[in-house]
Structure formats: C-alpha cells, structure tokens
Amino acid sequence: MTPLLRRPRYARVSTVDQDPALQLDALAAAGCQRIYTDRASGTLTARPQLDLLLDHALAGDTVCAWRLDRLGRSLPHLIQTVTGLHDRGVGFRSLQESIDTTTVTGTLIFHLLAALSAFSNATCSANAPEPAWPPPGPAAGSAVAHRR
Q1: Is 98 tagged catalytic?
Q2: What's the burial of 124, exposed, middle or buried (CB within 10 Å: 0-12/13-18/19+)?
Q3: Which of 9-23, 90-104, 107-121 has the lowest mean pLDDT?
Q4: Nearest to 93 by CA among 30, 24, 16
Q5: DSSP state for residue 57 in the 8-state scheme
Q6: Greater model confidence, 76 or 140
Q7: What is the distance in angstroms between the CA of the first residue and the CA of the last residue of the chain?
Q8: What's the DSSP call for residue 6?
Q9: What is the pLDDT of residues 33-51, one digit of tens each?
Q10: How does the average pLDDT of the chain come out, rounded?
Q11: Domain spans of the chain?
Q12: What percentage of residues in the chain have a pLDDT greater than 70?
C-alpha cells in the first residue's frame, strides 16, 4: 500500500460556484494527503492542477480521485491518463467506483468499464436517427415542386 504522504489526490468541480468539499472530505477519509484542485469544466484541455499532479507523481504513488469522471475529460483521455500513470509506475484509485489499478483486479475492472463505455457510446451513435436529406425546409419543398 502507498504510504499516506505519497497519495496525491485530485478534485475537480466544473464551475467556480461549485464546492469541492464533498470530494475533498472523501479523499481525506481515504488517507490521501496532497491536494490538487481545479475549478474548470472537465472538457477543457488546460487543467493546471491536474498537469501539476501528473508531473509530481512518482513511481510507487497512487493518484486518488473521487470519481473517474473527475480525472478524465473523455474516455480516451481517461484511458490515456491512467495508462500514462501506469507506465511510470504510478497507480490510480477511484473512490466511488472502488477501482484501484495497483491490483490486477482493479486494472481489469478499469479496462472492462472503459470497454463497456466505448461500446455504449458506439451503439448510441449507431442507433441515432440518420439526418433527413435533403433537409426539411423551403429548399426541400422547392426541389419536390420542380420535379412535378
């Protein structure tokens, strides 16, 4: 297990009006010490505190986040971030999903959830209705009138 001083934690809220206290309390209760907090949308590329955390994480550390969606701005970004940590010998732990990539089972569960999420996104896209062509509106009506 990673010593308490080497468990950097990350919290993120999407707006300046939101309070990260719930996340911070849960992370503190899990024994995490160092805190990095961003107040920015998860879709933003620039998250300075996350970048700092990733720069400071050392082999043997376990980066903790309250939920998976706090760390990654998208599924590919989340997988890239956790894989990058793993390649450097840094684990990842998500408290809400009870995922800990420092264990073989945790790594398996992380990748299964990622695969299921990717599958779900792909099937939702595949089942979305095709856009009408030509698009409805005056131009479409004109084309039909000209054919008569």
Answers
A1: no
A2: exposed
A3: 9-23
A4: 30
A5: -
A6: 76
A7: 77
A8: G
A9: 788 888 876 666 678 888 8
A10: 79
A11: 4-126
A12: 69
Reduced 3-state DSSP string for 109-145: HHHHHHHHHHHHHHHHHHHCCCCCCCCCCHHHHHHHH
Residue 129 tokens, joined = 């209705």
CB atoms within 10 A of CB 13: 19
Residue 36 CB neighbours (<10 A): 20
How far are the Cα atoms of 98, 131, 136 from residue 141, in angstroms, in the given order? 56, 17, 7
How is domain 4-126 classified at the CATH fold level? Rossmann fold (3.40.50)
Query: Exactly one of 14, 94, 117, 142 is catalytic; which is it?
Result: 14
Q: What one-character-per-residue DSSP string does 86-103 give?
A: HHTT-EEEETTTTEETTS
Q: What is the pLDDT of residues 60-109, one digit of tens each?
A: 999 999 888 888 777 888 888 999 999 999 999 999 989 999 999 999 99
Beta-bridge partners for 65 = 10, 94
Question: CB atoms < 10 A from the CB of 64, how many?
Answer: 26
In angstroms, rounded to a whole number, what is the distance separating the alpha carbons of residues 89 and 104? 14
